[in-house]
Specification:
The complex is a heterodimer. By secondary structure, chain A is mainly α. Chain A is built from 9 helices and 2 strands. Chain A has a two-stranded antiparallel ribbon with strand order 1-2. In chain A, helix 3 runs antiparallel to helix 7 and helix 5 runs antiparallel to helix 6. Chain A starts with 7 loop residues before the first helix and ends with a helix. Chain B is mainly α. Chain B folds into 2 domains: 73 residues; 42 residues. Chain B is 81% helix and 0% strand. Chain B contains 5 helices and no strands. The longest helix of chain B has 23 residues. Classes of the chains: A mainly alpha, B mainly alpha. At the A-B interface, helix 1, helix 2, helix 3, helix 5 and helix 9 of A face helix 1, helix 2, helix 3, helix 4 and helix 5 of B.
Chain lengths: 240, 118
Amino acid sequence: MSAPIKTPAAETLPHRAGLAGLASDWASDQRTFKNVSWGKAMMWIFLLSDTFVFGCFLLAYMAARMSTIVPWPNPSEVFALEIAGTHMPLILIAIMTFVLISSSGTMAMAVNCGYRRDRRKTAILMLVTALFGATFVGMQAFEWSKLIAEGVRPWGNPWGAAQFGSSFFMITGFHGTHVTFGVIFLLIVARKIWRGDFDTERRGFFTSRKGRYEIVEITGLYWHFVDLVWVFIFAFFYLW
Amino acid sequence: MAHAEAHAAQHVAQAEHQQHPIKLYLLVWGLLFVLSAFSYLVDYFGLQGYLRWSLILIFMMLKAGLIVAVFMHMAWERLALTYAILLPPLLVLVFVALMVSESNYILFTRLAFFGTGP
């Protein structure tokens, strides 16, 4: 993105704290999100729309589960694994949760390093994040193949309500797709940072604009959102 | 005017740097681990009923809050952005209420017309 358009009249207005500041930001005849670049504001608005997408999925799952007269399969048992002869309920999902949280931690640190213009550290931390993300997708692929082998289908399963399979495949499938695209996004940005695009002000291949280190924070917003969605899926689908 | 421009420049510079100490990120990371472990333990110990649901929801909201506030820097954004992003999802709760009522009705008709109920 090019440098933000300066609107001196807007910027000279003093920022008031609290609700008065909120009202003046929205009411004034000027850009609303004053100290936020367009890249960041648009990512937030995209994430808001994505919130509704996942919100609708979880709602559909809730409605299906509440209205079925067949008992719902017990997720604790469905997702249990035998590890070294011990029966561990839900263990794979717990590990996936820890992997995704760790990826969020490394991403947050990458944002910090990016703003310090520490090229090497930022790129490495983003690659570590991508690696955690890829691990997560790999574990999800394992989970899917295990369930499919046990006979779970979108239209039925051996343990109870048929809607279990359709909810499971749709919700985790969409989330897994988001993680996969996040990994690709991370790899692209990490490569640009490693090459020093934002230090040499190299123009982007697609937009022909100069990038800024802010893209690390924007990528981070997307990545943390993927983790955020998992928090809700973990609570509502796996634990409920 | 020069003073005003300097002030504006400072404002923009401040805006572009959501920079916070790594220590804070590590603390949040640790908290998220602990909260996830707690949620897992709820299932591990097989807690049931309202205790289970309230614990799951509390841990979920705490985790979501930490991620949005610290990792996504929402705690340091202006209220204009915070409210624009955080208020609309709350309206989903209206949709939830609608679907709860709808689900109960569907369950009732299924029990009444398919007669497979208890």
